[in-house]
Amino acid sequence: MTPSQEAEQHLPRPFPTARPAGCPFDPPAPFAQAREEGPMTPLLYPGGHIGWLVTGLQAARAVLGDTRFSSLPEGKRDPVKEIGNQLSTDALPTGMFVNMDPPQHTRYRRLLSKHFTVRRVRELRPRIQEMTDRLLDEMESTGGPVDLVTAFAKPLPTLVTSELLGLPEADRAEFGRHVDVLFSLSTSQEEMHQSLMGLGAMLNALIAAARKEQGPDVLGRLTAETDLTDEELLGITIVLLIAGLETTTNMLALGTYTLLRHPDQLADLRADWSLIDDAVEELLRYLSVVQVGPLRVAAEDFAFEGLSIRKGEVVAVSLPAANRDPLGFDDPDTFDIRRGVTRHVAFGSGPHQCMGHHLARLELAVGYESLLRRFPRLELAVPPEEIGTREMMVTYGVLGLPVRW
């Protein structure tokens, strides 16, 4: 029997979202079960479409690096939401380069990449440290306990991303509300459409202001240095704002929760702060907060990894499952800040790898170290079983994290 026949003989399973009871840091158990059958197995999408689920590390890298798996929105299906509750691709503005293939994607990526180089990001470190310290000052002044999500994990990426794009402080709360709607797996198509329209109106005003007075932020530079249209800038700005806020917010809070629940690892970090970058990499691998997608659509019929892929089949890559693949990592379900590996796919892989990964890594390193240095006795203010999690969101994390010191 060929590998393709072996995969196709298994009944397709629906995409899982429920975490194992008492294991808030582990991916849903069906991912590991699927991976035991093969790194790429049939997946039942809402509405009856039979596509694929990728759970192996090597297969994930291969799919994300192969342009025969298209990123275009046509034909994409959400693996969790019912057909009637998925956002129509007609509502998406041009410029949302995450939904493009080369050469269009390559053009936008080239225009933006110089704003997120290692050198440019390193120049931001003093300003990010200043923002971090100010938030921690405000947090300390309360005397505690506080919800770390609202006091620190959400404000820091919001401040950094808003400053990069020139988003006024008065608009940041509204922006956050729209992002929550767009990333929810339980909102309706109409709710998502309304939030997208509200977000668009807010950002169109931001673009108009940038054209009038071209500042030093990324949006100001794009208006001055490129011939991008307002609609293209709208799509780009939506991508950068959402990418800069959602994942880093949840990594800051969930990562802190992870360290507090692994006191031996936290003690190792406190004893040797040179481990902070390794700790960030391990947290990225171990948590992999993007729990739904990336999604791709087969652009043609072809053979792939021993399987027969048909044009139009949707492929969902599970980053959490790939980052727990025992063929890619020794003892992958163990959290170990001394692991010293960076070959995870928490930021994706291939031409669509997250362009802001250097910035995210810097925010996490500064955020974790500053928080833990400032509060050497930081601890949960409630029992662990009272910590709610974001299972029905595209990006996993905690709903709140009460802490004291």
SSE blueprint:
Layout: H1 3-8, E1 13-14, H2 29-37, E2 40-44, E3 50-54, H3 57-65, E4 69-70, H4 104-113, H5 118-123, H6 125-141, E5 146-147, H7 148-153, H8 155-165, H9 172-183, H10 189-212, H11 218-225, H12 230-261, H13 263-271, H14 276-287, E6 295-298, E7 302-304, E8 307-309, E9 314-317, H15 319-322, H16 357-374, E10 379-380, E11 402-404
Parallel strand pairs: 1-2, 3-9
Antiparallel strand pairs: 2-3, 4-6, 5-11, 6-9, 7-8, 10-11
Write out key terms for the chains shown.
405 residues; alpha+beta; Cytochrome p450; 6-stranded mixed β-sheet; 16 helices; 11 strands; globular
The CATH class label is Mainly Alpha
Runs in which pLDDT lies below 50 for 5 or more consecutive residues are: 1-7
From the 3D coordinates, which CATH architecture would you assign? Orthogonal Bundle
Helix- and strand-based class?
alpha+beta
Q: Give the topology string: H per helix, E per strand.
A: HEHEEHEHHHEHHHHHHHHEEEEHHEE
Strand order of the largest sheet: 1-2-3-9-6-4
Distance between the termini: 60 Å
CATH 4th-level superfamily: Cytochrome P450
Categorize the overall geometry: globular
Number of helices, counting only DSSP H or I runs of 4 residues or more: 16
Q: How many distinct folded domains?
A: 1
